[in-house]
């Protein structure tokens, strides 16, 4: 069974580690790392282990950005020099990698992919005064230290948080699907899914006629779905990952349940349609941070990625691509990693392949999301959505 992101919220098992490091959060006593003739970009990726599919996809996106930037002359004449290490999909190893990258003089670190690995790495970058952009780490509280209050000055991300997704799902269900009654069916074994579900419950003004759960690795959902027969509702809201949600949608359609299904960015994988089957993947809506229909910039990224790697880019590769460009923009004129961090914290209206974004006071990204509709397993429409 595959472990997943927070998008997959890999559990923040590193809490003990944070305490052991004695880091409540905040800034650092370090003077940071100096930027020399090159700008050193550290990679802290899951290149092996349970979530290596995410890590390798994100490395591809980041590599493509580095190649483009260097081909265009670099940043103020300085080339990006990559220092890459594998955290083996282990939270503790990610912390070790962060330390190693800082020791090697990294001026900024891109990664890790997961929230758990990001949490364990953050005390290390805080202490060293080296900014870290974890492109897809969505867990809400990553921006704070172990006290839950002090801002982690050197932690940044390129995607929206779990709480935001729940609000957007509620908004779309109400305004676009006109759903006055919904069934909530979510993964109770995932912090990510539970967080999205909780936010949806708090935001939705309609009636939740039934709330059901499943767990990662489940494959038979017949009993739960059969309970929906005869109930009156307008849509099924399904916080979870493609591995289970694709199967749920297939089994629901096989039972004759044709109601709209609305999900978070955990649906965003070609494997969702493979599991749901093209016939089953109809009247399905999901949030994503990237679509080739989002902009001409997104389409160009798609074409360059396919040419470079011979495969379709994912949301994760797009987020890591944007993260490198965010770092490069912030490195312009910087003499140290601290200068780079200060510029990154002030980033406004940055136009990436995943949309226009700004960094807020808590180092979270303010950006729009996309809602993709699937019919017969293919994208039939894309809408932009922002929280009201």
Number of domains: 2
Task: Write down the Rg.
Answer: 21 Å
- What low-confidence regions span 5 or more consecutive residues with pLDDT below 50? 1-24
| Mean pLDDT across all amino acids | 91
> Which sequence of SSEs, written as H and E, runs from N to C?
HEHEHEHEEHEHEHEHEHEHHHEEEEE
Strand fraction band? 15-25%
**In one word, what is the shape?**
elongated
Percentage of residues assigned to helices: 25-40%
By CATH, the superfamily of the largest domain comes out as Response regulator
Q: Structural class, from helix and strand content?
A: alpha/beta
* CATH class descriptor of the largest domain: Alpha Beta
Oligomer: single chain
Q: Sheet with the most strands?
A: 7 strands, mixed
Number of helices: 12
- Under CATH, the topology of the largest domain is which? Rossmann fold
End-to-end Cα distance, whole Å, is: 38 Å
Looking across the biggest beta sheet, what order are the strands in?
7-6-8-9-10-14-15
Pfam families: Peripla_BP_6 (PF13458)
Domain Leucine-binding protein: 39-377
Keywords: Amino-acid transport, Signal, Transport
Protein name: Leucine-binding protein domain-containing protein
Report on this model:
This protein has 388 residues and is of the alpha/beta class. The protein folds into two domains: 15-160 and 296-353, Response regulator (Rossmann fold, 3-Layer(aba) Sandwich); 162-288 and 369-385, Response regulator (Rossmann fold). The chain has helices spanning 15-21, 52-71, 91-103, 115-128, 162-175, 191-203, 222-226, 242-254, 270-276, 296-309, 315-331, 337-345; strands at residues 38-45, 79-86, 108-110, 132-134, 155-157, 181-187, 207-214, 235-237, 261-263, 284-288, 350-352, 355-359, 365-367, 369-375, 378-385. Helix 2 (52-71) links the parallel strand 1 and strand 2.
């Amino acid at each position: 069974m595959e472990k997943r992101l927070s998008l997959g919220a890999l559990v923040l098992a590193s809490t003990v580690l944070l305490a052991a490091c004695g880091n409540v959060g905040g800034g650092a006593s370090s003077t940071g790392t100096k930027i020399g003739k090159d700008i050193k970009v550290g990679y802290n990726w899951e290149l092996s282990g349970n979530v290596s599919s995410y890590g390798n996809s994100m490395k591809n996106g980041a590599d493509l950005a580095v190649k483009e930037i260097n081909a265009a002359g670099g940043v103020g004449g300085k080339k990006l020099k990559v220092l890459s290490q594998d955290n083996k999909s282990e939270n503790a190893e990610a912390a070790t990698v962060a330390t190693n990258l800082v020791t090697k003089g990294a001026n900024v670190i891109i990664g890790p992919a997961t929230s758990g690995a990001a949490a364990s790495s953050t005390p290390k970058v805080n202490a060293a005064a080296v900014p870290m952009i974890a492109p897809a780490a969505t867990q809400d509280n990553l921006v704070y230290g172990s006290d839950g209050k002090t801002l982690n000055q050197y932690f940044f991300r390129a995607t929206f948080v779990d709480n935001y997704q729940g609000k957007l799902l509620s908004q779309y269900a109400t305004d676009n699907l006109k759903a006055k009654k919904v069934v909530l069916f979510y993964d109770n074994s995932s912090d990510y899914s539970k967080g999205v579900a909780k936010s949806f419950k708090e935001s939705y003004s309609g009636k939740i006629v039934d709330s059901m759960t499943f767990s990662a690795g489940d494959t038979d959902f017949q009993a739960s779905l059969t309970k929906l027969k005869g109930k009156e509702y307008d849509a099924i809201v399904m916080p979870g990952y493609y591995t289970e949600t694709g199967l749920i949608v297939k089994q629901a359609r096989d039972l004759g349940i044709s109601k709209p299904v609305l999900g978070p960015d955990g649906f965003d994988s070609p494997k969702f349609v493979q599991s749901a089957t093209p016939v089953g993947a109809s009247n399905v809506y999901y949030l994503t941070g990237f679509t080739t229909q989002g902009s001409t910039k997104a389409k160009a990224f798609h074409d360059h990625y396919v040419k470079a790697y011979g495969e379709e880019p994912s949301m994760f590769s797009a987020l890591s691509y944007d993260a490198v460009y965010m770092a490069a923009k912030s490195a312009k004129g910087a003499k140290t990693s601290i200068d780079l961090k200060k510029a990154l914290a002030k980033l406004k209206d940055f136009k990436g392949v995943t949309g226009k974004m700004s960094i807020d006071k808590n180092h979270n990204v303010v950006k729009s999301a996309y809602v993709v509709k699937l019919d017969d397993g293919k994208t039939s429409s894309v809408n932009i959505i922002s929280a009201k």
